[in-house]
Amino acid sequence: MRALYCNGKQVRLDPSFHEPTPLPDEIILNVTHCGICDTDVQLASGYMGFQGVLGHEFVGVDEYGDRYTAEINNPCRHCHWCARGLETHCPNRTVIGIFRHDGAMADRVAVPRANLHAIPESVSDHSAVFIEPLAAAFQILEQWTVFRSDKVAVLGDGKLGILCAWVLRTACENVTLIGKHLNKMALAGHDIEKILLDSASQHLAKSFDLVVDATGNPSGLETAIQLCRPRGTIVLKTTIAASHQFNLSPIVIDEITLIGSRCGPFKTAIDALQADRFPVENLIQAVYPFNQAEAAFLHASQKGSTKIILQM
Ligand SMILES: [Zn+2]
Ligand SMILES: [Zn+2]
Question: What's the distance, CA 288 to chain centroid?
């Protein structure tokens, strides 16, 4: 089968990659669509030392033609973390397309049965590719109670930033997207306030109750600290390979609550897409046939690109 293989330095489309060998609890899906996200771009440049097939935002069909996507963390379900309900933090886990498990940028992928989520008929393949990142955005509401009157800022005008802004807007009136590109921010729509980063740093210091860093940039947290009010909350969505040194003392002085946030509830994301609550397809820049996966990956790696989808 075809697969986009990452050797930890670059990606290459292998036309005769070996078929996945499913574990006893896994089934094989025929992949139809797979999104490329910033995590994939980082993995391809060495993040986490991953070597294998990329792809964790996908739609596949089973032998009956039913459409599914799947949660990406494969916990052992036996250890004491799993027993406590912390499956996504299981130390023995593999993660589809990210850690010790081949992903879905391939004709076929093996996924644990327990991870499957059926895709409702009204959700298009292109929208369904957003289930995983949208779930990650919904995770913020699982971790923190947001009040309707809260002033919320989302840093970063990439795909995840816009998804986070949309999700937070369902919970509060005042959400501001802060980024560097007016054209990208425009994709967020009229319900979201938009401010350029320079202007926000100058005029909005200590103004927000909640600041989400979805910049994908090591400097995002520093900016978030500037914008967060005393006793406010910062949610960190950025995972980056690079380290960055700066002064953390404002977190203590301003008594800021800092929350790390990763994967989220698939069911909530699927329900939201089924209810057509977010125009996720506006975030798609291009759909490439899988045979052009290398070119697609290059496109996704360019600064300012929005969602690139591979069609198998
Ligand atoms: Zn992703
Ligand atoms: Zn476990």
Answer: 20
